[in-house]
Amino acid sequence: MTPAQSQARAQLSDGRYVYCVVDTTSVPSASVGETTGIDDETVRVVSVDGVGAVVHDCTSVYDADDIDQVKRWLVTHQQVVDDVSDVFGTPLPMRFDTVFAGGDSALTDWLADTHPRLRTELDGFAGCWEYRVTLLWDPQPFEAHVTATDDTLQALEARQAEADAGTTFLLEKQYDARLAERRRARRSALASDLSAAVEPVATQVASQDTTTSLRDESVSERHTPIARLAVLAPETDESALGSQLDDIAARDGVTIRFTGPWPPYTFAPDICTDEPNQA
Amino acid sequence: MNPTKRNSHAIVEFVDVLLRDGAVIQADAIVTVAGVPLLGISLRAAIAGMTTMTEYGIFDGWDADHRRRNAQP
């Protein structure tokens, strides 16, 4: 922790850790149930006119050198969001470690100031969830097929058999380049097909970097992630989305990872108090 | 196919997402240091090997909870 962060921790006396914002119009705020928050803190809802922030009281932000501790916080955070989602429906999720200073009064001031914007966002996300789709590809079956059927590759191979050493070297380079070109085209086609498959059932789609910041030991060496999509879709279309993905997953060398339903983390907007209301 | 939330890759996914995404609030009352979110890139980079989380039993309660939900009609 930096000295500045240490100072911030020391100064926070009446903090509110915010998990998410929920629609409390039809469900009383007190219905948050028995879910317990990070470090077993009591979770409650601070509500202003049908828009509620799911919070626990805290006296510090959450940062630690102990990685296992951070992992527990993250899982608990998600657990709370899952639990309140069951009660209130799709939440507007906050990024981990969103902490207000100034107690309930600061929080209710913020809820009142941003109320039209929060209302619009909650209404927009109602009934929808985020699903995440990763297309992993093992190129070996494709390469086996292409080397047996591509005319250019076949011709290069035949010429290599009759060429001298210098020419063979150049022909091998051409062979590799042609194979790489076919592989690139296939990757591009698979990524396009995936986008086309999810598009009919998606409210929004965001294409994302295929590398995560975290190491995923469950990915085999041979499988390369070639497309990663965050898909916002109505809960009622979850099966349809799964069916669309079945078609892509049936292709040679393709593995589809389909996770969710998540709160709309990717599609949640940044909320600035000073911006014009969008209601 | 049906989506999952319990496999190791789903866990990697949500931790990655949770640290990177979600609504960011910009308001005077939000605790930051010089406008910079307190939990930054360095922490994300430090969290590796998420599948080992199951070894610590961190997910036991969560797993059970989701199995129960999935079993409901």
Structure in a nutshell:
Chain B: GO terms for molecular function: structural molecule activity. The complex is a heterodimer of chains A (279) and B (73). By secondary structure, chain A is of the alpha+beta class.
What layout of secondary structure does this protein have?
The complex is a heterodimer of chains A (279) and B (73).
Chain A: H1 3-11, E1 15-23, E2 44-48, E3 51-58, H2 67-88, E4 92-93, E5 99-100, H3 103-113, H4 115-125, E6 128-137, H5 140-149, H6 151-162, H7 165-198, E7 204-208, E8 224-234, H8 238-249, E9 254-262, E10 271-272
Antiparallel strand pairs in A: 1-3, 1-4, 1-5, 2-3, 6-8, 6-9, 7-8
Helix pairs in contact in A: 5-7, 6-7, 7-8
Chain B: H1 8-20, E1 25-26, H2 41-46, H3 60-71
Keywords (chain A): Gas vesicle, Plasmid
Family (chain A): Belongs to the gas vesicle GvpF/GvpL family.
Main location (chain A): other
What can you see in these coordinates?
Chain A is of the alpha+beta class. Chain A folds into two domains: 3-126; 130-262. Chain A has helices spanning 3-11, 67-88, 103-113, 115-125, 140-149, 151-162, 165-198, 238-249, and strands spanning 15-23, 44-48, 51-58, 92-93, 99-100, 128-137, 204-208, 224-234, 254-262, 271-272. In chain A, strands 1, 2, 3, 4 and 5 form a five-stranded antiparallel sheet that branches. In chain A, strands 7-8-6-9 form a four-stranded antiparallel sheet, with helices on one face. The longest helix of chain A is centred in the middle third of the chain and has 34 residues, at 165-198. Chain A is elongated, with a radius of gyration of 25 Å. The model of chain A is unreliable at 275-279 (pLDDT under 50). By secondary structure, chain B is mostly helical. Chain B is elongated, with a radius of gyration of 16 Å. The relative contact order of chain B is 0.16. Chains A and B meet through helix 1, strand 1, helix 2, strand 4 and strand 5 of A and helix 1, strand 1, helix 2 and helix 3 of B. Strand 10 (271-272) of chain A pairs parallel with strand 1 (25-26) of chain B, so a sheet runs across the interface.
